[in-house]
Specification:
The protein is α+β, with helices and mostly antiparallel strands. The protein is 34% helix and 24% strand. The radius of gyration is 17 Å and the shape is globular.
Length: 262
């Protein structure tokens, strides 16, 4: 499994450095009619740039070279089915809207699942130079340092991050944010689900919530969260979050209260 983790790290860093080089030169070709339009997607808040596809190709090429028989599921290419029990789940540019608006909170997310169970997950945020790495049953590190979730036990002292995910508008997210803000210290939206996930894993904030999220947005984040000690459920406290896309992840001391409020 260590070899798989190296592949995930190498792919994320290679794609991330490519994204960063173009970001610094502000060289971004948008797809669609204007800078906030959509290419083959359903939400006007989502953005596709040429760099999403370039990063996608970099990751696919590297994984195909090292593991030619593996399946892949990427945001840009879709499913590549080779009949393998191994599937790479990839978001080549999480936080595309941030990226095209020259906001530094963007990242590359690479996860490998064996028979639908994540076994290695890597999130690389190139501008802020942070690399989260998780291996099943081996914990989570951030820039090589082991991390754990926070120990905050009172909801009124907690910091929460989240995003509206794939919802067609912000109405549910706005309602959830409003309800949470009455019970917590503060709620923050970073614009990248993967970055928000490792922010919880590293104990910087206490919980993460999102709605209707896609598998590639949260696959690596799921393992990063669990290996740091977070509990991850759907809004009913069950394990159906990958199907519903409705995710709550929190340190164990806060989860019950979080679910009650939501």
């Amino acid at each position: 499994m260590e070899f798989f983790t190296k592949t995930a790290v190498d792919a994320a860093i290679l794609a991330g450095k490519h994204l960063l080089s173009k970001y610094k030169r502000h060289h971004i070709e948008m797809y669609g009619s204007d800078t906030l339009s959509v290419s083959n997607r359903g939400l006007t808040k989502e953005v596709t740039s040429s760099l999403d596809n370039e990063a996608d190709e970099i990751i696919i090429d590297l994984i195909t070279e090292r593991h030619p028989g593996h399946n892949m599921l990427t945001e840009e290419t879709g499913r590549i089915d080779n009949g393998s029990p191994y599937t790479w789940v990839i978001d080549p540019l999480d936080g595309s809207s941030n990226y095209v608006n020259h906001n530094p909170f963007f990242c590359v997310s690479v996860c490998l699942a064996y028979e639908n169970t994540p076994i290695t997950g890597v999130i690389f945020a190139p501008f802020i130079e942070e690399l989260a790495v998780a291996r099943k049953d081996y914990g989570c590190t951030l820039n090589g340092r082991p991390v754990d979730v926070s120990t905050t036990s009172n909801l009124d002292k907690s910091y929460i991050v989240g995003c509206p995910g794939g919802d067609k508008n912000n109405s549910r997210f706005a309602l959830m944010s409003y309800v949470l803000n009455e019970s917590i210290k503060d709620f923050r939206k970073m614009g990248s689900a993967a970055i928000e996930a490792y922010t919880v894993a590293s104990g910087r904030v206490d919980a993460f919530v999102t709605l209707n999220i896609s598998p590639w947005d949260i696959a690596a984040g799921e393992l990063v969260l669990k290996e740091s000690g977070a509990i991850m459920t759907d809004f009913n406290g069950g394990n159906d979050y990958m199907k519903s896309g409705n995710v709550v992840a929190a340190n164990p001391k806060l989860l019950k209260e979080m679910l009650t409020v939501i």
